[in-house]
Design a protein that fits this description.
Length: about 80
């Protein structure tokens, strides 16, 4: 399911919510630049090249965050976690 959400800086972005088989773990695809994290961090503007991420939620709280070099790597990780 694709949803509109706001970044930490109030900018509207598109993200995709994916649930695992049990339905309890919500995974949201994110991008370093869409989240405007390059503007937040002074020294590491591109997260050492790891710009494709997954945010993991247990309903309300963010419980984990993982970053990948390519969109394909990130999508494969979601596939494996689903």
């Amino acid at each position: 399911m694709t949803v509109k959400s706001e970044s930490n800086f109030g900018r509207e972005i598109m993200s995709e919510k994916i649930y695992n088989k049990s339905g309890y773990l919500e995974m949201i695809k994110v991008n370093w630049f869409d989240e405007e994290l390059d503007q937040f961090y002074d020294t590491d503007k591109d997260n050492k090249g790891l710009i494709w991420g997954i945010e993991y939620y247990d309903g309300v709280d963010k419980i984990d965050m993982r970053w990948f070099k390519t969109e394909d790597e990130r999508d494969k990780a979601i596939e494996n976690d689903s």
